[in-house]
Design a protein that fits this description.
Strand content: under 5%
Order of helices and strands: HEEHH
Number of strands: 2
Mean pLDDT: 87
Number of domains: 1
Low-confidence stretches: none
Radius of gyration: 21 Å
Largest sheet: 2 strands, antiparallel
Bound molecules: zinc ion
Amino acid sequence: MPDTLPYRWQPDRRPDPSPFAAPPLFRAMLRGVRATCPVCGRGRLFVGWLRVAPVCSACAAPLGLISADDAPPYFTVFIVAHLAIGALVAVDRSVRLSILAEMLIFLPATLLLTLLLIRPVKGATVGLMMKLGFMKPPDERDDG
Ligand SMILES: [Zn+2]
């Protein structure tokens, strides 16, 4: 097939320069898991339970430009569902419990596990997104 296009599309291969020195990927994610700034590891990542701080209090990294949106809940549900369903199947095969007893054990346990994991998963996601440069332009900054 002859090339009839006047020009070929070429992707922009140069990434935007990062405004700060981002650490290696796993260090950034681990700092996020510990609820500290993925860049410096000293400032607090969250204001409250899950709200990301607009800027790092220690290094002024623009944390508010990272919008994790639905990724942390998705990852958390993925992890919790595998753990809860695996445990439920294991218990169901080894111990005779009524449906009510299983519900009284596994529903609160699933809720508790979800609440325990959502914050570190969101921190890791923010670290991942910051390292990969998934940040909003500065004019789209919000406080969430
Ligand atoms: Zn920082």
